[in-house]
Structure formats: C-alpha cells, structure tokens
Amino acid sequence: MDGLLASLATITTHDSRSILPTIDIPTLVVVGQRDDETPPAYAQAIVDLMPNAELVVIPGAGHLLNLEAPDAVNQAILRHWEST
Predict the structure, then answer these.
(1) Residue 83: CB partners within 8 Å, gap ≥ 6?
(2) Which of 10, 63, 66, 72 has its CA 20 to 30 A from that of 40?
(3) What are phi and psi of 68, to 5 degrees?
(4) pLDDT of 29-77, one tens digit each?
(5) 11 within some domain
(6) Of residues 73, 24, 70, 16, the one with CA closest to residue 46
(7) What total number of domains does the chain contain?
(8) Is the CB of residue 80 less than 8 Å from the CB of residue 54?
(9) What is the pTM of this model?
(10) Residue 31 structural domain
C-alpha cells in the first residue's frame, strides 16, 4: 500500500513542464476529446511547450484511448510515424 500511495503522490505533484522545451524530437500527443482525467486543454499545453510536437484529439473518446478507439489511435500513430 505504501508503494501505491507514493506513486499517487508522485503523479499528483511531479511537474515536467520545465524540460518539455528541450524535447525536440518529433512527438505525438494523443488525447480523447472526452478525457476527464487529462483533458485536451492539458494535452495542448504540453504540445505548446514542445518545439516538435503534434496533438491529435480523438473524437468521442475518453481517457482509455487504446480501448475506446483503437483504430483511431493506431491511425494517428501510423500517420505520425510515416511523417517522421
């Protein structure tokens, strides 16, 4: 239980925004349009800090993208991979 609590504390307090501008490799950020855990606005904020990032918002999907919209996620990854 201590490990779980430590993980949850890290998830809620860790802030990586300061290093995002240093990541200059092509990066794909995928988010569900209806994601309540990490909303599209959060994903956009990440993309705005990264010089070479692309945002794809999956319509109608929530937080579990790979389960809710696997084809859309796979297509986004494939398009990104083929363009880099």
Answers:
(1) 26
(2) 10
(3) -80, -35
(4) 999 999 999 999 999 999 999 999 999 999 999 999 999 999 999 999 9
(5) no
(6) 16
(7) 1
(8) yes
(9) 0.85
(10) 20-83
